[in-house]
Amino acid sequence: MPRYLTYELIDDGAIARIMLDRPKTRNAQNRGLLVELDEAFKAAEADDRVRVIILGGTGPMFTSGHDLGSSDDRAERAPGPDQHPTMSTYGGTKAGTEARMLQEWHFFFDNTRRWRNLRKITIAQTHGTVYAAGLMLAWACDLITADTDTMFADVVGSRLGMCGVEYFGHPWEFGPRRAKELLLTGDSISAQEAHQIGMVSKIFAPDELADKTLDLARRIAQRPTVASLLIKESVNQSVDNMGFYNALNACFSLHQINHAHWAEVTAGETIIGTPDHGVESWKTAAPVHERQVDSPW
User: Fold this and answer.
1) Global pTM?
2) Which pLDDT value is given to residue 90?
3) Are 181 and 287 in contact (CB under 8 A)?
């Protein structure tokens, strides 16, 4: 049985609904959750009854991004007999840049690329504050719904001195100039603006989000499966031919170079690149333009 998410089949299996279920951590993405999410996606992909997958989250937000220190996260990174076998390369046996690169390639980057090309239509049902790695999960889906109060931002630039998250979809989702602005400032955008720029597909009232997203999934599930998948593939291939796939690979390498640089910058006592010169400060600070955020990170 999954520990970190729920999986249910709706309408005789036509719709699979996956809900991230770590509400106390705002559905932070520890490695156990990401392993289970990959298994859930694969199960839905292999089920011929399933035509549409909904990905959402329980509690006050869709997901708060990468897990940066919960008890589960610390246990996963500590070597020992209880360690998950897929996590051994980062469980204390390797260190530094190499270990981080292996961790991020497998759990954050390659997973997200694969989910983007899943042989099902996928809908991200987002709510709350969708920051950093939360964007990655949403961007991997074919459609994104949000409630009227949802906010989006990549805060790793303004809080951690990084050039964006591992799956660098920013120029394609925000547009080039808006992407630069949002990454340089850490500002957030509302669901309404995300809809205006084409990143969010539908906006619903908070108390209607789940039902309306399910209605949308049902409409899509009524379409012939082959036609739906050919539409998805046509759009994905068009974007890939415009450079999306190669850009993702190149920007992941830049992300790792940025990690190595940041490690060097923060090696001394003086830390630069964060608003108040503190690495930990970003966990509780919202983007500079939107200070009302409910997140433990």
Assistant:
1) 0.80
2) 39
3) no
